[in-house]
Amino acid sequence: MSETPDRSTVDPYAEVLISENDRLAVLLATADPALEVPTCPGWTLQQLLRHVGRGHRWAAQMIASGATEVLNPRDVAGGKPPEGGPEVAARWLRDGVTELLDAVTQAGPQAPVWTFTGPRPAAWWVRRRLHEATVHRADAAIALGEPFRIAPELAADGLSEWLDLVAARPAGAEPPLAEGATLHLHATDDELGVAGEWMIRADGGRIGWEHGHGKGDAAVRGTAADLLQGVLRRIPADDDRLQVLGDPQVWRGWLSGTEF
User: Fold this and answer.
1) Which of 3-17, 85-99, 166-180 bottoms out in mean pLDDT, i.e. has the lowest?
2) Which domains does the chain have, with CATH numbers?
3) What is the 3-state secondary structure (H, E, C) of the chain?
4) pLDDT tens-digit profile of 15-55?
């Protein structure tokens, strides 16, 4: 009898990706695939599932080929869930993570591959696909009227990972903060400490950030889960779960400038 492989040798995020993707699959396995997703206008749960499952395979196939350029998502092999209903589709979603982790194992976690932020080690995609799965689990939960629960540490890491993507944008793009402006995000979860505080600033047309406490032109406080949903526009900018201090236009401008 073969043993279950130790995915931690692929990347520390591997087991968390499996778990979070499975939580999404469980939500979708008994849901009406035609249900609309209000936080992804124009999408149904079926389209959300296809987006996540194809995304796992998209990353896997770029890793497997050592891609130096982006793969057209339309060219992803097995990029559509098979016929057979929600349970079959949920199994397809889980299989996408297996394909991704197998690709990282075979290529080697440090093998270079195309990413949104330039060439990166193959294991970069494990964390990226993890947080893609968590945010779309939030979408599915909202569509189904279910609570979205996520560990504070994971929500905080998702926010940090998102800020890394924003910071990687080229200087030529319109920055979501005015030059010299600062935005402070503060998670109220006691266990996070400095990992639950983010100072974000614009400098030379680029966005920079670091963990730490400081006074910003605007500050937003809430749990890490609510901050993550706020930053990713899954809850409104003025939602009661978020306390906005200082200039609210800085917060609104940040949100309107990070829609990608």
Assistant:
1) 3-17
2) 7-144 (1.20.120.450), 153-256 (3.30.1050.10)
3) CCCCCCHHHCCCCHHHHHHHHHHHHHHHHCCCCCCECCCCCCCEHHHHHHHHHHHHHHHHHHHHHCCCCCCCHHHCCCCCCCCCCHHHHHHHHHHHHHHHHHHHHHHCCCCEECCCCCCEECCHHHHHHHHHHHHHHHHHHHHHCCCCCCCHHHHHHHHHHHHHHHHCCCCCCCCCCCCCCEEEEEECCHHHHHHHEEEEEEECCEEEEEECCCCCCEEEEECHHHHHHHHCCCCCCCCCCCEEEECHHHHHHHHHCCCC
4) 999 999 999 999 999 999 999 999 999 999 999 999 999 99
